[in-house]
Backbone:
């Protein structure tokens, strides 16, 4: 299993970013995917969930209404569209999947929101 995130960067408060995660090494459309984030000095927290078929999504209260998770199964990609970004969204964002209670993580992509 390999997960590679991209799309992070520096953005002003109120701006938008679209994060991408390229997946390989497993039957992508059969696996649920998640996004997590970890801010400096804080624990990693769950951000968003999308089912394998893309029909079910769920979001943390802290991002609900500002973030949309989606996936392109033929391309083995999952995305996180983030709008109305706030300084408190600054974190390293990680793509995640899970099988038989084992978690798989990408290397993360840094998102920095300036005020």
Residues:
């Amino acid at each position: 299993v390999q997960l590679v995130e991209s799309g992070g960067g520096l953005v002003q408060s109120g701006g938008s970013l679209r994060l991408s995660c390229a997946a390989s090494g497993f039957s992508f459309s059969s696996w649920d995917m998640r996004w997590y984030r970890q801010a400096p000095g804080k624990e990693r927290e769950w951000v968003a969930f999308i089912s394998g078929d893309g029909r079910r999504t769920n979001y943390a209260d802290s991002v609900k209404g500002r973030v949309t998770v989606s996936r392109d199964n033929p391309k083995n990609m999952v995305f996180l569209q983030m709008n109305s970004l706030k300084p408190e969204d600054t974190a390293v964002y990680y793509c995640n999947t899970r099988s038989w209670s084992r978690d798989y993580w990408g290397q993360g992509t840094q998102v920095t929101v300036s005020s």
